[in-house]
């Protein structure tokens, strides 16, 4: 799923951020109650509450466009990960490699998705979101073209890695764009759309690839040319985009004002940090802190492991579904590709449930806190309901898929098994990301998401390589049972955090958010069951 992912409704923070970056946090009370700043002599803030250059004052249609275009970019990058799989039979013949080795083209692309966003998020906060989108799209397109033109398997794998590296940038920057445009209480629908774009892309790739695989006139290179077509559509979309990052907009406006002024300005834009300071920030904060948090913070470690496992299942299916449905039900390539639509349906249902939970549980609690005179910053345990429900869907879906195929019952049973898997995957992903962002303070939340995203794609890069051997050695039923048992072992994670989260958070070595509670020592379970 992408860094997705995920991106997501970060609720009480102005950080609906990327998996690897954070554009800043804004608690809900400030978003609702604080008066917007008036004009300032430095020009480094919006001139008035209705400033037309403030993205949150744009029309609904314009804001929706600035969410839809990056979401389609995310969809294109995600499709590129799995569309490649349809060409594996021809790749094995063309380059004289085994099917397992041919999967390296998938694994290295996903590995690129793990590393690229780490650098893209901080760059977007210096150069702006729009610049990163354009550079990312151009380089992504060039390396996809290089993949399609490759004459050796090594060059194919290398180009795929860098395509993932540069394409993955959008997975981190998109949620910063989301935070730029929408106020926190308005963010749930757009966050769900962004999560869907990264979660559904890997499932749509095999649908398209299945039809390509059956065409006698098209070879495996068309799996890359189709991605280039998506990239071309993104060029048209990006032409409609304006800059959304506040700092960049205001500095450009100030520079324009000073250039047109006949009198010297009384203020100058703040100079950026020196190169050495930026390098230290990159090495110490952007790269090192996520690893420290992963090693020392139970919340980060267990939720990163859980979301990484659920997203990895999607990539395991790329290798396993052709074996399952071709072997047991004699499906053709395009029929096998269509089975992935069940996962898409599950993802859509999960996104709908996410929005419903936000509207019926999270939002009312925030407004109730404000009505009591609080700041509207409620405990993050209210974010866990989606993961608590979705985890059961993953286990049930895996068993339906595996044993339905093993016993050769109707193919409908096995296909429908993908629905609860998709449903659970997106709910676990959204809940884990929002819980971590709500738990940690601004800088540490960014590192928490970076750790989560890195583990997620690192695991997704490696697990598919073992999927064929697992299915061949254990059989379809027991292979899915092993995965279901792993998911069952992870089921208690959100439940334990729901009950003991406040106690665990109080022992954190990093700065955490201060929440509105009647008794800070009480768990959210005790507080809200009354």
Would you give an account of this structure?
The chain is mostly helical and 530 residues long. The longest helix has 32 residues. The chain starts with 27 loop residues before the first helix and ends with a helix. The N terminus and C terminus are likely disordered.
Q: Any chance you could write out the topology, listing elements then pairs?
A:
Layout: H1 28-33, H2 60-83, H3 88-95, H4 99-102, H5 104-127, H6 129-149, H7 153-167, H8 169-181, H9 188-214, H10 222-238, H11 246-260, H12 275-296, H13 298-329, H14 333-338, H15 341-371, H16 385-406, H17 411-416, H18 418-439, H19 442-462, H20 467-474, H21 476-490, H22 492-506, H23 524-528
Helix pairs in contact: 2-8, 2-9, 2-10, 5-6, 5-7, 5-8, 5-19, 6-7, 6-8, 6-10, 8-9, 9-13, 9-15, 12-13, 12-19, 13-16, 13-18, 13-19, 13-21, 13-22, 15-18, 16-18, 16-21, 18-19, 20-21
Number of distinct beta strands: 0
Residue ranges: pLDDT <50 for 5 or more in a row? 1-42, 262-270, 518-530
Largest sheet: none
Shape field: globular
Helix/strand class: mainly alpha
Query: In percent, how helical is the residue content?
Result: over 70%
Terminal CA distance: 37 Å
What's the helix-strand series? HHHHHHHHHHHHHHHHHHHHHHH
Overall radius of gyration: 23 Å
Mean pLDDT score, rounded? 80
> How much of the polypeptide forms β-strand, as a percent range?
under 5%
Treating each run of at least 4 consecutive H or I residues as one helix, how many helices?
23
Keywords: Cell membrane, Membrane, Transmembrane, Transmembrane helix
Membrane topology: Multi-pass membrane protein
GO molecular function, one term: spermine transmembrane transporter activity
Transmembrane segments: 67-88, 100-119, 131-149, 161-181, 225-245, 299-325, 337-357, 384-405, 411-437, 449-470, 476-498
